[in-house]
Amino acid sequence: MTDASPRSVPLNSAGVQRCIRPACGASFGIRERIYVCGNCGGPLEIAAPLPPASEASALRARWSARAASLDPRDRSGVWRFRELLPFGDAAPIVTLAEGNTPLYDAPRCAKYSGLDTLRLKHQGCNPTGSFKDTGMTTCVTQAVLLGARTVVCASTGNTSASLAAYAARAALQCAILLPRGQITSSKLAQSVDYGAIVCEIDGNFDDCMRLIREIAEDPSIYLANSINPFRIEGQKTVAFELMEQCEWRVPDHVVVPGGNMGNSSALGKGFEEMRQLGLVERLPKLSVIQAEGAAPLARLFASLQEESKSDRTLISEELTPVENPQTLATAIKIGSPVSWEKALRSVLRSQGQVITIGEQEIADAKAMIGRDGVGCEPASATTIAGIRKLAGAGFIRRGESVVAVLTGHLLKDPDYVSQYHRGTLSLNPGTTQREAESKLIKGAFRNAPIQVAASKNAILDQLRRANS
Ligand code: F0G
């Protein structure tokens, strides 16, 4: 371990699991195998004592010095921030060198969104190609500490790919529940290759989620969905890493896609902890973007705005699930997100927004991200489509600093990409050809491959035509 300062900041192995509902607030032991509050059924979060604010600058120096270390804990963009994780120094960490993902300038996306500048935090550059890895390293470490033999999750494809990989590293049995026919082949391929037991069921993600929670009542089985607060602990470190990359100058806006709502909950927690530590003086406005056909939280948020309710009544509101969620961004095809209360709290605390975006806008925004040389999957592109909409509405101003969090890699869903560029991407796939054609996405930035004769002149001719 590399220390930048002789002062020692203790590692954070103390703490409790605490219900986030203000009316309850019940606490449970840090190594108790529970996923929701045993008192009221509410969501749990890890509440651990933070280092004193006087240690903030020592911590900052220590974290950045670790970037030059070869210790496996320092090579991980999650465990590098271990002073803020609820594990002791001797924890048997399960890591694939996750995190440490790039922050890119995106001038074309900025122009497209009506902004001067825009940055992309590309979480698709994690070992299994999505942001899930940053939470899975802590969650599977906790599974090992608890002596679990089997880890399980329900998934739209990325959580399962990530869990399968980390379970393989830890030599744990892994079983995943997927909605049949609704997972991209790339994500499915990852899970089978990492040796997971892949169960495809007739039903959607929400059905899988309900079932897996029942299965995880067995004490030898550990649930790795983001309802598990140890997932959130790992994922919150993305906020630390982002702030480090921003040289601790807080962006005005951070924008994320919303599905099961773990990511938004985790970023919100990370920013809040940095504020409490005195590492930043304010919170960025955290906004969540949902696909129109799978937007239960955006609906609730809109209704709360209309009624202009106070913060305190907001959290106890009940979310009405979307029964049959629909979107081509399959990663976020979720009607009943488990972490909505935490996410809503983070959005409200930071004065962000929760909005929806249509399929056409998502598809075009994805292609625009590509024009900046950055490849993401469709769910990630909700961010740029959402930023454009929020800028159009005046919520984001032209000169403000904005970071979009891209959650998954382009190669997670190559079929979507090629269908968009060939002009065959349909909102009605898998039906008759006529119905599929009636609902085609009309890509504004199509770039289909062209058939060219195998001759130098024919190829040069194509280049000239493209330039004219
Ligand atoms: N983007 C991608 C690429 C995802 O895979 C997910 C969630 C999200 C965004 C939404 O994040 O759930 O934290 O709000 N995928 C989960 C899965 C549900 O099973 O892979 P969230």
Explained architecture:
- With 468 residues, this protein is α/β, with parallel strands linked by helices.
- It has 17 helices and 13 strands.
- It has helices at 56-65, 72-75, 107-113, 132-146, 158-170, 185-193, 205-215, 229-245, 262-277, 296-307, 311-315, 340-350, 359-371, 378-392, 414-422, 433-438, 456-467, and strands at 16-19, 27-29, 44-47, 103-105, 119-122, 150-154, 173-179, 197-201, 221-223, 253-257, 285-291, 354-357, 402-406.
- The protein has a six-stranded mixed sheet with strand order 4-5-13-10-11-12, with helices on both faces. Strands 8-7-6-9 form a four-stranded parallel sheet, with helices on both faces.
- α5 (158-170) links the parallel β6 and β7.
- α4 crosses α5 (158-170) and α9 (262-277) crosses α12 (340-350).
- The longest helix is centred in the middle third of the chain and has 17 residues, at 229-245.
- The structure holds ligand F0G.
- The site of ligand F0G has 22 residues, from α5, α9 and α14.
